[in-house]
Amino acid sequence: MDVHTKRRWIDNVPNEILAYIFEWASTPNSNSFSVEKRRGPGVPEILSQVCFHWRQLAYSTPALWANLNLRASCTANPNGKELLSQWFSRSRAVDVDLDISPLSQGPGLNDLMETLCTHSHMWRKLHLSLPWYSVMVFFGLGTLQTPMLQELVVELRFDPLAGIYPPSLPASVGRTILQYAQRLDSVHLALLPTFSLQLLDDFLPWSNLTEITVQKPGVHPGVVHHIFSHCKRLVRLKIWTAYWHMMDFSMEYSSDYCLENLESFELEADIRPLAHILRSIQLPNLKSLSLSRIANPNEEQYPVRPTLATALMELQGHSRFDLTHLSMRGLLEFSGENCVCSEDIARFVRELPSITDLALECQFAEDAERLLHRLTLDEEDGKGRLLPNLKTVNVDGKWKPVEEVMCRF
């Protein structure tokens, strides 16, 4: 088949089918390379340069322009503002992924942020990976209309120049508020423990969220109080904390800290916030609990009250949940006033016969295996195993059937 015959065949393809092919070609899963890492023109730009017919069809296919990946470096495209506006004009809803280099700042960056915010009403997902300077620019943009926004990610990139920037917004700058974001249900924050709580308080409609992730390097400790007090629709919650031992973090039990819909809770923290959070909350419908301890070489100098073992029992007493998945990493130690021992864990799981998946990871895998052996044997009082429904276990970083692990004993 010669070139002209192929061309006639392509020209005769119905626009509906051709548009469907365009959409398929533009999705990340259909490409052999990662859209996240591409450096040249993307699929929409390439398709629109083939011929006049394809250009017109590409411009009138909104799904082709639904994903926008921006990588801003110290060199700015002089036509970037116009090209960005054209991209939004061809779409109905856009998933925006913006990654800004720590070396990028100045008028070009401000124009980029302003152009993005001009089209905030079209955001469906917004993923931001920003240095400190750009984070402060984003949180000083004033009120943004975001009626289509469903997912938000704000991550602080490593920034060697962060120390020279002011830690807070100037008084004359308006705080960013995501208005009409009633569809927003998933938020991922990775800021700093010292980040102003005031900037987050009315930043978004917290009460609508069903999923929150707080990741390294963390957030202000007050955000945790705010989450448990206001995010009553939460189904999944993941919190990473560190450095809070220097901020005198504390938390007391309150009926206001009850999340009735929460099914999955992951908490990775220093020993003090770990114990304080667990003793203070109520999670009656929790199914999956994952606890990881961030080691602090100075923690032995500051005994925690209540102890982590006591906090675990208070959590169980307040919640009366039926867990099916339990993971404990770095908690099982046999020395140290702030740690838990095998007896503490056995006492905790004695009230949780519904557990089917159990992960116990500590410095020495033999200690975890010894405890697991105890949990899967019949008790001396004739009441049967502590965990009669246990199916899979993890003591060395890999999930295995419980029978495979227990056959070694």
Percent range of helical residues: 25-40%
- Number of DSSP helical runs: 14
User: How is the largest sheet built, in terms of strand order?
Assistant: 1-2-3-5-7-8-9-10-11-12-13-14-15
Please state roughly what percent of the residues sit in beta strands, choosing from under 5%, 5-15%, 15-25%, 25-35%, 35-45% or over 45%.
15-25%
Poorly predicted ranges: 29-40
How would you characterize the largest beta sheet? 13 strands, mixed
Whole-Å distance between the termini?
69 Å
Order of helices and strands: HHHHEHEHEHEEEEHEHEEHEHEHEHEEH
Supply Rg.
26 Å
Number of strands: 15
Mean pLDDT: 79
Overall SS class:
alpha/beta
InterPro entries: LRR_dom_sf (IPR032675)
Protein name: F-box domain-containing protein
Organism: Collybiopsis luxurians FD-317 M1
Keywords: Membrane, Transmembrane, Transmembrane helix
